């Protein structure tokens, strides 16, 4: 008899297996062994989720926003008490260290709480002068698709603002990291979320998205993942004109200017880049260094990266765990080989580690020709390219030379250079002398092929609202 944990669907307020009883395996990326399973939804499970979300819509949208917010704040408190156990589950499923998983859950709690605290104010009518106002209204049922790299934060960034705005949600959690969606949905249920308002499904992603988006019940699509899949989903959503919030890939540059303080820049880049084994949409991936600093930067960065302690994610000494799945290892192999075959130099790393688990070491490539794939495709892993530049204009041109536009970073204290770079970098977010994750209170969204729409802060809630313009009222009473 198997003793593996089995994660269920949550439909219409009940935890249960999928209609066909089919399950998908959950693999520990540090051992490559199956250690759990997750239920796979059938078409009739999805229809039930659609019907229950639609059935719950009226009552949830007309519940006072303050009360909706109180449930989110209560769920945040409940989730906070479970972080230790939940972080262990996440680490085993995803491969990130326990410290990283704990930090991620802390941010998920903050996100639930921020949206809960602002639900009332962001649902209130907005006066527009005498006799005019904007009335925010919930858009309706949301289909939310979340990936495996930061499953806790990304679920919170979709669920919390949608629920605060008054929208029921059908969430497809990542099949690779099911425990995260289960912990968060259980916290919401314990906090009193009514039946049908949150439904959780897993299964074959392409079948689920196709079925949910073909339903006129769904009014909003929110997705985080690759640009290729985002485009497929946007095409499906076009049929019913569902609003889309697409948080897609990135290929973020860091410009290290000639006055940069390397004692700050190198640890900041190294820590943020190799968090979650580099599998973050806004991780830096292309470092451009002012030529006078290039030699010193490269040798100190290479030294720092070689010292990163790779190991089992549940070992407190580990600084970087394995990649999440075999697909990422293959992607690292192909990108490195392509760059090398075209003449790039591998300064460190470059081959899979010879041990069980999906381990790829921090890798630095230099002399990478402009047509190498690694300069155009999102690496989504622990690979960095480093190149020198002579003028700020040249650095900007290089920084903007991909189809992506999610995040960009630079290091300089010169105010005029800061202004120039802020204005000329094509990115949804620009950070100066600083690399950190997104916060609950700020809008975040990409440009170019990195997507459209916003998550986070006020704009994150507005993404799930209709802003109804009302003209000519006699009074606002
Ligand atoms: P993928 O594009 O197949 O999957 C990414 C995520 O999208 C997964 O959670 C998957 O379940 C989901 N997905 C895939 N096809 C779907 C569909 N038809 N309908 C609904 N959901 C679908 O790739 P992958 O191998 O799992 O991940 C690698 C790539 O995904 C990376 O190269 C990266 O570009 C991208 N990615 C980006 C983010 C991000 O934060 N922007 C997160 C995870 C993955």
Automatic annotation (TrEMBL):
<dbReference type="InterPro" id="IPR016160">
    <property type="entry name" value="Ald_DH_CS_CYS"/>
</dbReference>
<dbReference type="GO" id="GO:0016620">
    <property type="term" value="F:oxidoreductase activity, acting on the aldehyde or oxo group of donors, NAD or NADP as acceptor"/>
</dbReference>
<feature type="domain" description="Aldehyde dehydrogenase">
    <location>
        <begin position="15"/>
        <end position="470"/>
    </location>
</feature>
<keyword id="KW-0560">Oxidoreductase</keyword>
<protein>
    <submittedName>
        <fullName>NAD-dependent succinate-semialdehyde dehydrogenase</fullName>
    </submittedName>
</protein>
<dbReference type="InterPro" id="IPR016162">
    <property type="entry name" value="Ald_DH_N"/>
</dbReference>
<dbReference type="InterPro" id="IPR015590">
    <property type="entry name" value="Aldehyde_DH_dom"/>
</dbReference>
<dbReference type="Pfam" id="PF00171">
    <property type="entry name" value="Aldedh"/>
</dbReference>
<dbReference type="InterPro" id="IPR016163">
    <property type="entry name" value="Ald_DH_C"/>
</dbReference>
<dbReference type="InterPro" id="IPR016161">
    <property type="entry name" value="Ald_DH/histidinol_DH"/>
</dbReference>
<dbReference type="InterPro" id="IPR050740">
    <property type="entry name" value="Aldehyde_DH_Superfamily"/>
</dbReference>
<comment type="similarity">
    <text>Belongs to the aldehyde dehydrogenase family.</text>
</comment>
